Each structure stands twice: as structure tokens, then as C-alpha cells.
DNA sequence: CGTAAATGCCTTTTT
DNA sequence: GGCATTTACG
């Protein structure tokens, strides 16, 4: 049997070897979609004798394209895979337009307008025309129109009725004009113009023997047309998709395209893949229940191939800060308690909105957990990189006003808003490009209403000189090296290094590294794009445009950049121990053993601005089905900003309670064993499990019992006064003044139980601290840490650095009693609960060193014997919804164990359930006033802390330097 | 008067 | 990080 048929199930094999010329493979999550698609490519090459250069394979993301190429490399021999036309729709279209665009009047040195450019153009138009429409909305609307094939010609023909529609048509028209005068194509144009090309010159694709499309449910109408055209010669198409995972409606994707395709090609063969090889059936059941809330959806079965596993968790936390802190602590807990079975690279946090990463990044940084970001801002979008690229873009296409505008005063050269506005006005009036006007202005020839200020004129002169020098150099540079050399030229002329140092004192080094990385990239990309990548096979009778000269090379380099995504950060060694943060959208197609989905509240998911609730539900479905073994969803019951409450996402609030539990799992042998089985890994030894327990720090627990389950606050609200380090006050300074110095002590206090947390940006200074610190020094440090905006400072850090015992004792005051009457929150809010049964406390770290960890550390031993009975009773008593499906004994037992119902909220007395818990389960809260009155954990455990703080601090430092994220890059 | 630096608000998802 | 507004500076 062929190697690429090995390990395929019947349905997959049928799909791979199907003789059908039009084939649809419907592949739900985890059903081996990519495997099937790549195997089919290999099959087509090996058994049908197709040449790779005559096969097109379309994906939606560059990551997916890259992954497919990787996988194919292993499947097909030699360098066949490199000749394959494999890429995103946009990049394939770009290739055709570069090669054949001249046939329909597109110069082959066109630039590509990314969404920032598009937005910039529209913003300028809005300002000029004084229209009120939101620029983003306008851009989306334009894109939407274009994605449905509505060109400007059609818009021009229809007469707009309302003033609003007229305004829009006007903006649309001018936007298109702006693109044309700047010689730019936007993302939609790439597809649209390629359709136009292929309609008029079908010969360009006369060589194509087979077309394959991944994630077909995400295609829009233009892409549907493109499919027909690209395959027009032989009409052999394979598409793979899943309507349930359609999450790009906002980008005009049409789920209907699957049906349309069947109608358009009557002989279409459909193959369903139904077996899920990814997730535990607990995860799968939940996902299935959620997706089935959509009643319009044709019902579809998904068979699980894994054991039941652990119930997914829906965890309530008080606010987003605690949510982030809880996720961090849960990550630490699981990595330790699974005895090495789960490591950090197995964990992903998937977000509805990118900005949600902010708090998480801070919390992770504080805990010294390295992470990597997927999606979000690309390498090429980082400010420092963007600046250089915009210079290159200006040199390459000076009439591209958006690029020129973004660098006209960067670095600052005294050209302010007023000057720019005047130049723009003049350009508009003269119907000339901004660049033309700028050149005239420098020579004093421009017709300006207001004369330029002297400094502005000087600044403009410098700019013009630089751009012209770049253009001149372009004529003498070796074409292949032009981009790289230009980058160096620009960086040198701008004194860019000095600029970065001045502008970004905190992290200029990293930014400078990025610039160097860019110039490195420039060489690689250029060579690559000059060779195989871009070359379309010669087709009889159609003239190809040839690359000549440095201009074209530069222009292609910039086009490649516009269509590229982040390159993997090549920092070996570290990469494997990082957790992943990603948007749900860019997590599609990927999988992790452990997945967290924060912020599952109304307004976040479904998003408040979403038009299609079903699409939002599918988004959650996609997120959930990324998880192999453990799935966590979290909900901050309060919003941090306003004091408003948040409401659990409608997708999780009805009829699925029995699929969820409200606390993280107890990592007993059974749970760990199941995880190992699902992941196909060796179960960890008892020794490594026991060792994991000893790795817990003083303030950590074996159980998810540190934060209250009902989302009440973890710490008493009035901790500020008590926990503020009085000793840090300078003489004569009032507490209020100190508070004003911007450190958020309320926040710090909440986190002060993490002994190894540190200041994110002031870490360098902190680490070099000598053991003895005078209060004044501390105050200064406090300030510097506070002024670094990303610092989620922790007072504990000061203690780590050797604050005197005296200071600690001043701190060590009893916590105030909550002022409100008896309330569940008061029961739970006591921070310093003994979280581990007392008999285990001697085995906690710091103290346990005298013991042999492997023999003395206790883990949650009894799986069922002791607790199952009581839990079963609890289940029977409190659960409103019985378990639906029939399942085997193990499943029942596990479901029961997992299904401890939520405690009744806001009860004035302790419920019987809570009593039940405190008596039986280790995950229960030790209730009552006793804890509220006892000492704060962070302080009682201080002696142990000093033992562990040294190495921890060191470790986090090393990690932190290499951490890069979407947020926290603006600390000047 | 114009520019630059500081502050306070907000943030859907991607090629 | 973006954007609008305020404040300081020359």
C-alpha cells in the first residue's frame, strides 16, 4: 500500500482515491481533514500523473498553506511539492496578476493595499468630504460590495436614492480612484481582477489539471467564480469543508457555496467524514450540544473515538483580573499535577477578540510563563518595521500617498498636522498626487494658500532628498539585493537606531533587532520570490511579463510582505515550552491538548456587534473543538471597567449544565490516565506525579479551591489600607499621595499571594537589587515600576528582594472584616484558607525538602471509593438535568464525579451542599470566619518564600526578554 | 500660532 | 496601539 494511504479510515480512503472529478469532502472538526486533503494531492500526483505545476491548491491562511506544504514534503518524493501551486487565494491571484495582469491593463509593479492602507485612504476621504460615516464601516461595506462582485461600474450605473447612499457611492468611487492613482490593488481587487483576467484570457489556466480548495465553507462569491475559472480546463475539483466551522461571514463568506457547487456541477460526489480523532467525548458532547442549538442546521453526527475523559469546565471568576490570575494558576496547577504529561506547549488560550489578551499577557508575564501569540499583529505591522517598509513603499511607488503620509513626519521633522492638511488640500485642488505637490513645495513652486513654516520646509526637503536618493540607488543596485540594501540605506540615513533609542527607551534593542531581521528577510524573500515561487508555467499563446530591474524586485518584495504573516520566531529551545495565545479565528484548523476560552459572556461571544448569532455560535464551537483532553471556559461575572455584571453566553446557559462543571478537575490517577490515553502518551509514573505535588508553591493548591466558585471576589475589597506597605512611604508623604503615584494597589494586593511575580518592565532594575533596601529606594522603585505601564506589580516582589522582617510584621495585620452582613462572599473571601487538608500540609514545598518527595507527597488517591457515594447523592439532590445519553459504567462514574453542581448563589447561610463539600471533598472551601481572620497567605508563608524566590526571579527574567505579544509594546 | 508631549478613552473576527 | 483632547513649549 502506498505510504499516503496508511492510517486512513474507510471514508478518508474513499475521499483520497475517489475517481469523481468534482468531489466535496465534508469534514467536521478533528476528522483528519488536512490529512485527507494532502493525501489526495499525493494520490493525484502519483496515480493520475498530474504535474505539480499543473495542480492548484488553495487555502485561506498562509499558515495552512505552509502546513500543507510541510506535510506534502513527507508524502511526495523529491521536490515535487515545491513545484505545486499552493497558497492562499490571494497569493495565487497575485501571481497570475503579476504574470498576466498586463493583458487587462494592470502594470506588473502594482502594490497591494492592506487593510490599514484601505482604512487610511477612507479616513482621508472622510475628512476631506466631511462625511459622517464610520471609516471602518465604510471600508467593510466597500469590501462587502466588492466581495460580491459589485464593481464600481455597477455602482455608477445605479442611481442612489437617499443622501446616505449617495455619500457611500461617492466614497466608494473616490476610494477606487485613490487606489488607481496610487497603483494599488486591495485584497478584494486581487481576487476580482483575477476573475476578470481569467474570464477574458482563460488560456492562462489551460494547463490546470486539478484544483483543490481547503476550508471551502469560507469562500465568498468571487472566490466561487475563481474556482470555476481556475478549473475551467479540466473541471477537476476537490473541496474540503465544514459548514459548522464557517466563521468568516463577516468577510462575505457564503456557506451556501457548498450547495451552489452541487447545483453547478451536477455530478458532484459528497463524502462525509464522521469520526473525530481529536477530542475526548466529554468535549465532543458539549460541542455537539452547543452547535445543535442552531435548529436550521442540517443534523450531522460526529463519532468520538476517545474515552469520555474529563468534563469541560465553566469557571466563574469575579472580574477579568481574577479571571486571568485564575487561568495562570490553573495552568501551573495542571502542569505540575500531571507529572509532565501536560507541558506548556500543550496549552492554548483562545480569544474572541484580540484585545482580551492584554490582562492575560500581564498575568502570564508576572508568573514567568512564556507564551507566543498567533495571529494578531504581524511582524510586518510592528511600528518600527512598518516605518521602514513605508519608506520603501514610498520609494517604490511615490504616488502611494498612504505610505508617504505615514512617514512624512516620522521620525519627527517638524511637519505637523497643519502642514500636512495644507499639502493635501493643494494636492486635491491640483488633482495631483501628494508626492508631486511635496516636490513642488520644496522648490517653492506649489500653489499654497498658507506658506510653509521654515522648519516644516526644511523637514520636507530632507524627506524628498532621502526618497530621491533611494530611487536613484534603485537604478544601480543589483536587482536581487535591492530591497535589503535599501533597508540599510534608509535605516542609516534616518539615524534609525538613534531614533529607536530615543523613542523607545525600554525596548529599543528588541525593535532594532526587528529591523535587522527585516533586512535579513528582505534577502531571503527576494531570492525565493525570484525563483520557483512566482513562476507560472509557460502557456502557449499568452505572453508573460518578465521581471527586470530592481524596481520590479522591490515591488514584488513589498507585495509579498503585504500578503505574508508572522514568521515563526526561530528561538529554538524556548519555543517548545510556550503556551499559545490566539484568536479563535486564527486557531481554526489547529488543536491543543488543553484549551482555555476566556470571556464567555454576552457581548463578547456572541459579540455585541455581530450580526449573525449563529456564526458566533459556530465560533464557540470551533474554539471548543480545538481541545483534545481538557476544555476550560471562564466567565468574569463583573466587568472591570464599569461595575456592571456580565451575563453568561447564551450558548452555554441552557440545557447543557450536565456537560459542564464549575471547577477545575481533580488530577487524580484516573483523570491523568485519561488525559494520557487521549493524547496517546505514556501515563506519567507515580514518582513524577508525586514530584509534581512537591513543586507546588506555598500559595498554590492541589485543587481548584483558591478562588470562590460563584464568582465572588477572592479578597476582601478593603485590602488597600491594610496591605499598603507603610514602610515604603517617604517621610511626610501621605498614603493618598503614594496611591496617586499610579500603582494600582488594589490590583497588586489581589495578586500579592504570588511570590514569584515581578514587575514586567522594571524587572531589570528589580533583579539587580541588593538585599538591603532603604524605604526611600523602594519608593523610587515603586514609582519606576508604576510608570512602566505594563507593570502588574506585586508587593510580594519587594519582599522577595529582602525587605526587612520588621516591615513584614507591620504588614502582617489582621484583615478587616467585611462590612456587609453575612453573605456567601464573606464566607469565601478569606484569602488565607488552608487549602490542602492539614495532613498534607507538611508536604508542601519549602518544608518538604527534608522528606523524600516521592514517598511522602500525597495525591488525590481515591478515585471513587470514598467520594463517589456522597457525590452521587449530591448529584441526585442538586442536579436538575439528568445525564442524557446512555453510557458505560466508567462514564457514569466519571460524569458523576465531575458533576458537582454549582452552589446556590447568594445564600445567606451556608448551604447544605457547602457543608457537604467541606466535609467530603478536598476541593471544598473550608468555610467560615476563621479563615477571614487568619493571616494572609502571602505573609504567613514568608520564610519559605525567601527560599524559593531566588531562582524563580532569575528564571522569569530570562523568559521575559524573549516574550513578545500584541500588548505592552508601548512603554516608552 | 503650531508643534510636540502627555493623558484618557476604546478595541470583532482576517486575506 | 489608535485617536481625540489637553497641556507645555518655542
Describe this structure in words.
Helix content is 47%, strand content 7%. The longest helix is centred in the middle third of the chain and has 23 residues, at 454-476. Helix 13 (281-291) links the parallel strand 9 (275-276) and strand 10 (303-304). It is α/β, with parallel strands linked by helices. It is globular. The two termini are 61 Å apart. It has 42 helices and 16 strands. The chain binds a DNA duplex (15 and 10 nucleotides) through residues 60-62, 88-91, 114-115, 187-188, 190-191, 247-248, 250-251, 352-356, 375, 377, 383, 412, 414-419, 453, 455-456, 562-563, 565, 583-586, 604, 607-610, 615, 619, 966-967, 969-970.
Q: Quickly give the structural class.
A: alpha/beta
Kindly report the average pLDDT value.
72
The low-confidence parts are 569-575, 717-855, 862-972
Give the radius of gyration: 31 Å
What would the principal axes of the Cα set say about the shape? globular
**Strand tally, please?**
16
Oligomer: single chain
Strand content bin: 5-15%
Annotation field: number of helices: 42
Biggest β-sheet, characterized? Answer: 6 strands, parallel
Separation of termini?
61 Å
Strand order of the largest sheet: 3-2-6-7-1-8
Helix content: 40-55%
